[in-house]
Amino acid sequence: MKDNNNRLPLVSLNDVWKIYRMGEVDVPALRGATVDIYKGEFVAIIGQSGSGKSTMMNMVGCLDMPSRGTVMLKSHDISKLSESDLSTLRGKAVGFIFQQYNLIQNMTAFENVMLPLEFLEIDEHEAQAKARKVLESVGLHDKMYHLPSQLSGGQQQRVSIARSLVTDPEIILADEPTGALDSVTGREVLSTLQTLWKKEGKTIIMVTHDLNLARYAQKHVELKDGKVVDIRENNNIIYSDKR
Amino acid sequence: MRLNKIIRHALNMVLHAKLRSWLTILGIVIGVGAVISIVSLGETMQKQISSQLGDLGGDLLTLRAGASRASFFGPGREGGGGGASAVSTEDEIVLDKTDLQVLKSVSGIKSIDTQISGQADIYYVAEKGSASVVGVEEATWATVTTSKIAEGRMLGPADTNVIVVGGRIADGFFSRQVGLNQLITIEDRLFRIVGILDDTSSSIYMPIDSAYAILEDKDKDEFDTIIIQVKDEDAINSTMASIEYKLAQKRHVLGKKYDFTLTSNKAVQAQRSEMMGSMTTFLTAIAAVALLVGAVGIANTMFTSVLEKTKEIGIMKAIGARNSDILKIFLIHAALIGLIGGILGLALGYILSGILPSLMSSSGGGPFSRFGSGDAIISLNSVVLAIGISVIIGIVAGTIPAVQASKLKPVDALRYE
Questions:
Q1: Which of A104, A179, B25, B103 has a beta carbon 3.0–4.6 Å from A99's, enabling a disulfide?
Q2: CB of B1 less than 8 A from some CB of A
Q3: Chain A: closest CA distance from residue B37 (Å)
């Protein structure tokens, strides 16, 4: 659905159901979720544990397919894309930031950040320059050749952010990005996300159960028992003074 | 993903699971090593057989009294002019002058060497020993024998009381070396050495008349063996048929079981060669089982690796890896294990193929006793095959795990702990 500015949504979920089979029982994780997310929005998907937040994030990130309904990403119906096209779309359009960072342990920070570019077969020199630049932008210029095990939690999350940014995606998907961090480092990460949203015009979709974190976002999508129960603008956004 | 990156990731996987990778590689090393050494041993033996065939002369036939006794590894004629061992054990069946007359009437025969042989006591400077004495037709032996002279000369027409000795008689048989023109006592007769053969035998060759005098159990004009040289090697089969027919006719055994045996060196060598080939194939098949076990090892390692890397596969898929990228990484991982195993197995095979022949010959021999020396042969074909097969085994064993890895759903893989 077009918004007031006549824009098409970047991400659109229309009556999306996701049903998992647990033995003989069908367990719905999403029940007819409908939501549109537009370019340049900072959206927090909130809800209690088990409300379907992560399932929704997996749909948006093309990591999982809906059982019913449609998920449109950049005007592509993800159910109709081949595996190869899905991978390419995921690689180009979406950057993931995970709660547990999900870095590959036997690769250095630099190699982890290079990886998405290698899958996209970007020229080696160009890829190296991009990886270096993005690692510098998250303040890790002196830790590039450290293994994840040699970095603190905050530093690992910054590597994860750098990896999500290196392909210059339109959408950043952050799944509980501060969940494993202390409050100070968590605020730094949120500050980074706000910078990406405000200054670089990225679309940020953040999944969190913490309402305090959701206050950094512009729009809230609230889920309960797999249903979207509320979509509201956040009129009291907390802006980080850093960056 | 580009191939060089895929190889780097695969290599990284091999290096980061060192112990498991090396144990898997060890399985392939043993399999390839066994195959290579056995194939090499076979090729070495085949080559030596071929070279012996050349040395023995494909134009020679050996006639013995008595019915054929099949033996792939019969006494042969190595180390001398032929018939080193007595053959006819049946007293009433002999080869004699009349057989010789029959042979002389066959067209297609170039020369004939009649031989008798037996053991005799020999004495040299107060030392005594027992050696094989072969009486040969002194006029024709030099042309018929495949032995090479190292020093001096062969026997010749009208020679008497002279001998040609094998290499070991000259050096090693007695505590002192025996040289040309030295005198040796055989039984109670004195002989002068006129030639030393280029071999390691302990045989002594002398004119047949002298041998009759030495070997008392041999009757004059009866022979143990007759060596026949044909004029045309290509027509050897027809000459053989002609000889057999005429001999059978003369010995009144036409249409019955022959009481003589005529063999061509070529046929004997072909039989040996075939036997060696079969044995090599059999041993290679056993070694191939070791390779199969290695392949199962690779498959096992790959399944474990997929399980261990499930989360990484999920991460890679989340950041843009295609199914084909994951498939290639795991396939090349398996191929690399095969390749490294193949190269190391080749080295092991090379070492084993150098050691095995001497081990087999020193352990009492059998068919291998004659293959104790000589360099191991590892042909380019073996090298290419060993490495190629190892890589293919790796890929085949790694296919199912790799497909399994590539088909993992990213969302499931990411949840895996």
A1: A179
A2: yes
A3: 38
Q: Is residue B352 part of a domain?
A: yes
B407 close contact with A: CB closer than 8 A: no
Q: Is the pTM of this model over 0.80?
A: no
The β-bridge partners of B192 are: B162, B183
Average pLDDT of span B317-327: 93
Q: A182 to chain B, minimum CA–CA distance in Å?
A: 23
Domain residues of chain A, as ranges? Answer: 41-52+83-233
Residue A122 sits at the chain B interface (C-beta within 8 Å): no
Question: Given B206, B231, B256, which residue is the final one in a domain?
Answer: B231
Lowest model confidence (mean pLDDT) among A144-153, B50-59, B192-201, B273-282: B50-59
**Residues of B in Cβ contact (< 8 Å) with A163:** 319
List CB contacts (< 8 A) between B16 and chain A: 106
Tell me the nearest-neighbour CA distance from A175 into chain B, angstroms: 12
> Sheet harboring A42-47: ordered strands across?
A94-97, A171-175, A203-208, A42-47, A219-224, A227-233
B74 and B223 fall within a common domain: yes
Q: What is the pLDDT of residues A80-112, one digit of tens each?
A: 999 889 999 999 999 999 988 999 998 999 999
Taking the CB of residue A91, how many other CB atoms lie within 10 A of it? Answer: 22
Residues from chain A contacting residue B311 (CB–CB below 8 Å): 102
| Residue B12 in contact with partner chain A when CB distance is under 8 A | yes
- Does the residue B384 lie in any domain? yes
Region of B162 on the Ramachandran plot (φ > 0 left; ψ -120 to 50 alpha; else beta): beta
Predicted confidence (pLDDT) per residue in A201-239, tens digit: 999 999 999 998 999 999 999 999 999 999 999 988 888
The complex's ipTM works out to: 0.90
- Name the region of A69 (left: φ>0; alpha: ψ -120 to 50; beta: rest): left
- Is B251 among the domain residues? no
Residues B310 and B333 in one domain: yes
Most A CBs within 10 Å: which of B3, B319, B325, B414, as the mutation test of the A interface? B319
| B163 and B190 together in one domain | yes
* Residue span of the structural domain in which B166 resides: 62-231
A168 Cβ under 8 Å from any chain B Cβ: no
Average pLDDT of every residue of chain B: 83
**Chain A contacts of B316, Cβ < 8 Å?**
104, 115, 119
Task: Tell me the pLDDT tens digit for each residue of B115-133.
Answer: 999 999 999 988 999 999 9
CATH superfamily of A41-52+83-233: P-loop containing nucleotide triphosphate hydrolases (3.40.50.300)
The answer to whether B114 touches B91, Cβ cutoff 8 Å, is no
Q: How many beta-carbon pairs under 8 angstroms link A with B?
A: 65
Are residues B407 and B302 located together in one domain of the fold?
yes
pLDDT of B74 higher than 50: no
B202 exposure class (CB count in 10 Å sphere: 0-12, 13-18, 19+):
buried
